[in-house]
Design goal:
Number of strands: 7
Distance between the termini: 22 Å
Helix content: 25-40%
Structural class: alpha+beta
Number of helices: 3
Strand order of the largest sheet: 1-2-3-4
Low-confidence stretches: none
CATH topology: PH-domain like
Order of helices and strands: HHEEEEEEEH
């Protein structure tokens, strides 16, 4: 049991270390380090992703995900059974007006304004394998 607790603590620390790399204001950083980290004590994090542009993060748990949004100070919780994955591969076809050739989305079936929409896009074929790797992790988690 001690090793399980140590592993859980390590994953929380890894998440917080990655959050510390964000270029966000002090208030948002404190929100992550105080409010979010206190919710994660004794929580088994399976993985996480960070949107470095917006400062939001997605935390994968055993049976759900948590979306942390520092701008609004909200933490959204989505049960795994309400989540789906969508992949749009436009390589070799007409791509979106913004040049997107590959897009993947983890989304929820939830009430309006409470929906999860975690999206990864790329405009270069060089970036496709990185997104495919993330999507493989999403699908593996969804099917576990």
């Amino acid at each position: 049991m001690k090793s399980d607790k140590a592993t859980a603590d390590l994953r929380v620390q890894e998440y917080l270390d990655d959050i510390s790399q964000l270029d966000i204001c002090r208030e948002y950083s404190q929100w992550y380090n105080v409010d979010v980290s206190s919710l994660l004590s004794n929580t088994n994090i399976l993985g996480h992703e960070i949107d470095y542009d917006s400062g939001t993060s997605l935390i994968f748990l055993d049976r759900s995900v948590m979306l942390c949004c520092p701008q609004s100070g909200k933490i959204h919780h989505y049960p795994k059974h309400l989540l789906h994955c969508f992949i749009d591969d436009k390589r070799g076809k007409c791509h979106d007006s913004d040049g997107t050739i590959f897009r993947a989305e983890l989304f929820s079936i939830s009430p309006t304004n409470e929906q999860l929409c975690w999206e990864k896009c790329c405009v270069s074929e060089i970036d496709v394998p990185q997104i495919q790797y993330k999507v493989a992790k999403w699908i593996g988690w969804l099917n576990s």
